[in-house]
Design a protein that fits this description.
The chain is α/β, with parallel strands linked by helices and 136 residues long. The chain has a single domain, classed as NAD(P)-binding Rossmann-like Domain (Rossmann fold), CATH 3.40.50.720. Helix content is 37%, strand content 15%. It has 5 helices and 5 strands, in the order αβαββαβαβα. Helix 3 links the parallel strand 3 and strand 4. Helix 1 crosses helix 5 and helix 3 packs parallel to helix 4. The model has no long low-confidence stretch (mean pLDDT 96). InterPro entries: CoA-bd, NAD(P)-bd_dom_sf.
Length: 136
Amino acid sequence: MDELITRILTETRVIALVGWSPKPDRPSHRVAAFLSSRYRVIPVNPGAAGQVTSWGETVRARLSDIEVPVDMVDIFRNSEDAGQVVDEALSHLTGRRAIWMQLGVVNEPAAARAGAAGLEVVMDRCPAIEIPRLGL
């Protein structure tokens, strides 16, 4: 698993972070801020769409609003909702290479659909933990 995670995190340039929160005390906000120092992070949250983050990205309402190729979709939604996010990614995003489901997010059928479409999948992990753990 470490080899897969290392490959994803070293090859990724653009991340769509679904479930981003504008509240600084929320994990999705802190992780996005951490990742934004290494990657282009495009936050996705329908309730915050149009806001501009501290790192200069405009929040999108949905994945289909992203106009650039995305390497990784990072999902901060519950396990049940992850399937819908994966399906939207498969339908609307170009350049996608990996689906990353955050800590506590596991959806095997969605992972299988993503894998069948040629994407790499990580579940129940956080890139903000994995990057320092792997020395990346």
